[in-house]
Structure formats: structure tokens, C-alpha cells
Amino acid sequence: MTTLDTAPWQEALADATEATRRGLPVFPIGRTKMPAIRSPHHDDPPGTPKCRGECGRPGHGVHDATLDEQRLAALFAAAPHAIGYGIACGRRENPLLGVDLDRKNGVDGVESLRALADEHGFEVPATVVIATPSGGLHLWFTGPAGARVQNSAGRLGPGIDVRGYGGYLVGPGSWTPKGVYRVAEMRPIARLPLALLALMTPEPVQKEVARASRGLRPRQRTAVLTGLVKSVLDAREGRRNSILFWAACQGFKDARQGLVDEQAVTGALVEAATRSGLSEAEARHTVQSAYRSGATA
Predict the structure, then answer these.
(1) How far, in Å, CA of 222 to CA of 242, rounded?
(2) Which residue has the higher pLDDT, 173 or 269?
(3) CB atoms < 10 A from the CB of 169, how many?
(4) CA-to-CA distance for 197 and 226, rounded, in angstroms?
């Protein structure tokens, strides 16, 4: 490569390295925003089990994402045509979740998100905002530990895409033929509103919350309980009690504000905790401890 060719590559590596220092797992991408390293399994015969990096070789897209600077340098060395980097979503204790708002072809994702917030009674908090070359915006949020938010395109509304586990966001500074991804607003990454998390939740969880909170208005069920139940259902072994305690504290806080019935909080969270692996006695004890901690606060 000539010096002219290496400049975008060097800038992408520098930006990606800085991202790892902020705790963001990253990997190299090319001019089409796709992973820059060819899959080592490209010529595998049909029916070969899918590999997500278990083989140890580079070329697994978002599953290559790393926080290790030496590993990142090796990935970029294997991707001489990389001119940007992707940030893996849905990982670690406070998983990064992205809301991609498109503004093109007559669709305005910003307006769609505003309408969604009005309909479901939540506010979109100030957070990191990345401006895309096409005029759209990427909003960065963190979710609860273990949140397995699924990727989706347009499911929440026109122009609203979601980047969760297995997805990625294009990092600021990345170059494409249409322009550069730039930081529009730099703030601490905000927590994803529970009502918005609820709307990203698979239908089976929605139905479970509806059963556990029978008698509440649908808007209350969605905004108050669904996100909390999902957090408990997704909690990893070893963190189930702590996540349940946190969720119960949040639920009873909303109950004291008159947003939801205390019995609905208890029923929904105990049921979710037993499904995630706790005994009913252990779940009830944790929920009761959360209730007492709020009552004496």
C-alpha cells in the first residue's frame, strides 16, 4: 500500500484502539461497513456447524471483537483494506445497545422514536449520539447485565433499527464512500429506558408479564414490568439473586409511585426468577428483602 492508502487504515486502527480503552470491544470493517476479514470457513462444505470464533482464527466478524490492543493490532494487520471499525453490542456486564435512526427515502426514524416514546410513556435520555453520513443518528445505551436484546430492522417503527447481541455499531471516525461517522453528542452512555427495553423483548416474555400482572392496563404492564422481567429471565448463573434484587427494588419504587400494583411486581418477578433457575423460596426471600429495603429507606 502507498502512504496515501495507509492513512485511513492507520486512522481506523487508532480510533479503534481508543475505543478499547473506553471498554468497547471492536473489530475492523471495510468500505461497505461489513467485516474486513474474509471468513476462514468460506469454503467449508454445506452443513458444516457454524463457528463463532471457536477455531481461534480471525474472520468471524463481530465475534472477533476484542478489548485487547495486541489482538486488535493483529486483526487490523490481517485487514489491510480496513477503513473503519465496528463496536460489538450486547456484551459484558453493562451491554452496549444501539438504536439506529434512519433518515432517508421519506422515513424519519427520529420522529418514529419520538412517537413511540409518547405512545408508551417514556423519555429518551441524553446519551452518546453518532451522526451517520446519510443523515441518520445512532443512539448508544446500556442495558441490564445479561440483556439479550435481539437485532431488528423497522420492527419498533419506520426507520428504527435495533443493534443487540450479535450486532454492531459503526464506530465514530470510520470512513465510507458516503462520508464519515462523527460524534454529534458526547455524554455518558445512558441506561436504556425500561419501557423501550420492553418493546425489544420477545413475545413470550410479553405474554408471561401479561399473565403475572393481570388487571393492569397494557401500557402499565409494558412500561413498568416487562423490562424488569426480561432482566431476571436473562440473568446469568451466579448473578440471578443480585439481578432479581435490583429488579424488585425498581419495581417496588414504581409501585410506591402508584404506577403498578405491588402484588403484580412480586408475582411477575418470582415467576421469572423460578424460570431462570432459582427456587421459589429463594426468589420470594430476595423479593421480600428488596421490598423491606425500600420500605426502610
Answers:
(1) 23
(2) 173
(3) 25
(4) 8
